[in-house]
Amino acid sequence: MPRGTRALIGCAMLPSSSLPAAEVAVAPVVPALTFAGPGSAAAMNFSEVFKLSSLLCKFSPDGKYLASCVQYRLVIRDVNTLQILQLYTCLDQIQHIEWSADSLFILCAMYKRGLVQVWSLEQPEWHCRIDEGSAGLVASCWSPDGRHILNTTEFHLRITVWSLCTKSVSYIKYPKACQQGITFTRDGRYMALAERRDCKDHVSVFVCSDWQLLRHFDTETQDLAGIEWAPNGCVLAVWDTCLEYKVLLYSLDGRLLSAYCAYEWSLGVKSVAWSPSSQFLAVGSYDGKVRILNHVTWKMITEFGHPATVNNPKIVVYKEAEKNPRLALGRLAFPPPRAAAGPASTTESKYEIASAPVSLQTLKPIADRANPKIGIGALAFSPDNYFLATRNDSVPNAVWIWDVQKLRLFVVLEQLSPVRSFQWDPQQPRLAICTGGGKVYLWSPAGCVSVQVPGEGDFQVLSLCWHFSGDSLALLSKDHFCLCFLETEERVGTAFGRPGDHT
Amino acid sequence: MGEWMTVTDPDLSSENKNICQYTSETKMSPSSLYSQQVLCSSIPLSKNVHSFFSAFCTEENIEQSISYLDQELTTFGFPSLYEESKGKDTKRELNIVAVLNCMNELLVLQRKNLLAQENVETQNLKLGSDMDHLQNCYAKLKEQLETSRREMIGLQERDRQLQCKNRNLHQLLKNEKDEVQKLQNIIASRATQYNHDMKRKEREYNKLKERLHQLVMNKKDKKIAMEVLNYVGRADGKRGSWRTGKTEARNEDEMYKILLNDYEYRQKQILMENAELKKVLQQMKKEMISLLSPQKQKPRERADDSTGTVISDAEEDAGELSRESMWDLSCETVREQLTNSIRKQWRILKSHVEKLDNQVSKVHLEGFNDEDVISRQDHEQETEKLELEIQQCKEMIKTQQQLLQQQLATACDDDTTSLLRDCYLLEEKERLKEEWSLFKEQKKNFEKERRSFTEAAIRLGLEKTISIHYPLWVGFLLRKAFEEERASWLKQQFLNMTTFDHQNSENMKLFSAFSGSSDRDSLTVHSRPRQKKPHGVSNGSPVRTSKLTKSLPASPSTSDFCQTRSCASEHSSINVLNITPEETKPNPVGREGTNQKWSRASRPASQEGCYSGRSSTCTNSHVEKDDLP
Hints:
A: about 500 residues, mainly beta, 6-stranded mixed beta sheet, 2 helices, about 45% strand, disordered N terminus, B: about 625 residues, mainly alpha, about 80% helix, WD repeat containing, antisense to TP73 (chain A)
């Protein structure tokens, strides 16, 4: 049943001599980090395209399974063979799925009906249905232990904590309706919850094992917008609404460690990200800057501006450029025999290294409308702490990649269309970017590549998520998804049962 | 008079003449016509005038015309044309002399007038052109004035407009400010109102939520439920525990444990970092000590300033270093020691580096020639020397060229001189030949005479006894001796004469050959003894003398001589044989000895000097001073 499609574009990431030079833009300065596996050219191969709805496709935390939803059906596949292992049918169209931390259960939320259905992978006959009834349901998530489900009712009346082990049900009142109101520590021990009581913001810290309130404190925020634990679980970052720049840092025991305010009287924090080492807190704001706070003094150590022109010749600017398809096809005989046929209609693109003063395409924000397209809308640290990728919403086509060690801009990627999302490879400094077009883009310190997703018709990559091993990547479009394998040749053989049979 | 004026006035230019003549002709009465004609008569060349003239006086009206002329002339102050009449009734006679005088005067006047007229004409022309120019200028200026006036008006207008605008803008600004103030007030009030409303709404919302909560939750909604096939075990395999105070305490404990762990982790990291840094510091210290220690000897030898004490400290620290474990144990004191020692070392290093820097700068400033390092002054000296040499070479080349040219010229001269000399020789030869021929003739004569005499004597001896003819013989002999003597004298004289000539000509040749460089030669001749003189004492440096002798042909001028001298002194200074300018003067022997002494003494000092950073001249002078008393 599952058929592996050998990619039309098998594209080596390393600047090997066998490759057409136009395909891979190689950074002139190659740091010690290597892009792909040692010495071997990693090929990109794409799976067959599968149906999908509502962009619901998730790898299990243990990396063995892949869950995807088609209307009201939940399909569980083996990641390697892509064979369907289980097929669950829910009561209504699924709006949200989430794997439990131990990959044993998966919950499917149907917000419209206020229903949550939980399925077990080990016991397909086991089932669980949680009905929130007239209270309604707006959000549902697993507790880190994988035995409790937290359901937020409509109007944020309360959070119901359902246990799969006991009959006990806990309620948490006054949850705040905000951008990010619930956060769990990485070890799964504590949960912090933003609350709103008596027109004041509070944060409650719960012990996840028995849902006991550990700490409860009010925060000095006007209108709290989000909370997030540091990866070490000892510091909680709290930021205020965009109307005011305020970042507060609380210790696990509720002490205010520090408060940071970069400026006043202007739109403030837009996005926040902890570095995996908990050493840095990157705060992206509406002024188009990222400020990095350190974990010792909680003061700003540097400020990354995102100007529309890159003047420094040291900074490599990769510019995506359209390529003549026929010419490209002629040159793209790699891998030669199998990747022969493909849609010639799709225009391919490549990266070009732009010379020093590069002006990026900027978007003029519409002043009289809410949520202006300015400021740092997305930022993410690479898993090894070396890089920080950011996107300035007023320069929607570009992704800035910063060198965190040297605290300076490293690379700028400019795409042909606005960047929808990007995600770091969980294992190595490798960034996958999608722009809602038929291509997926990968950047590593060694270079940058643009890959056309093969398949009939347009496959518009709206979202992507990495497998935790970094070997594969799920590409999601509106109605379909496919997997992109970034493995060495030997692995490809095992990954595909019958590698060449599709063509 | 008036008519005169009328006539003369238009008579400015020759072109006008005819016109005015015509006009006057048409206008004038017969009497005035005369005057016209009189005037016209002054214009001699015009044929018209002649015709007029002829028309003025006819056979018939001679009398009238004469009287008229007389009248006219008398009115102009001329003497009367008529002779003074004796009687009234007698007819007056025309005085030819007076007429001629009058005519002459008139002619002179006419000429003067013409001259004046010309002058006036030219002046008029000039003035006219000036006038034109001025008029042009005036017109231009007027235009300019007009334009500037217009411009000014325009500018004024613009200024006014701008002022108007400015006023408007000020007004607008004020309005805007007011507006801003108003808006700010509005915003503030709105904000407070909004906050107030928000709070109210939130309260309402909270009330509603509460109500809803009660309604939804208290209804015992059957729907709110969880259907589960069977409860699953906990992930950790344990059973859930009851919530008690104990669990609470345990949670607290755990939390603090986590926090503690985190802090401990961080502390450990910091410790590690500290240890690393300490290690680096220690290594740095060690390296600094090892780096500084070889150079310590010298400063200590020099018994310099405070560094000595610091060094001893450093060595103490070095001794402490051996107890390396110490800095792992106690924190505070060791840290202090370490930082202090590092600081000290650093200070030493810094001072050392600074000293080195100073030295370098000093060396650069004073240009002390280190033997290992080529200082800048050395370079400069060298380049100077080289430049000098180049100059000299150039001069040499020039002089050589000159010489060559002169030689060429003198070669021509030579020809002429040789020609001349040849001339002389020819003359002499001729003279010689003449004399020779004369001499030969004389000789022949003598020969003849002798022969005749001998023949006669033979004949006489044959005929008579020899004794009888003795006196004749003797006389002949005497005469012959005399003749011979005379010939030899003549010969001598001739020879003398020719040799003298030869000498002369040779001298001339010499002179001509060196005529171009005669001054140079003389200079060299002059300079030679001058130079030699001071070095009559054999003590003088051989280098210099040799240099001088060598430079003799190359350095023609005295300035060059000085240069060579300076060169020599440089050379000697390089050889550390310090030759001051004094030395070139003849020195007393004792002084010379001291000089040598101090120059020898300065040698090690100069070697040391690179370290002390003093120039050798400095030390030399210093030593000299020491030696002098």
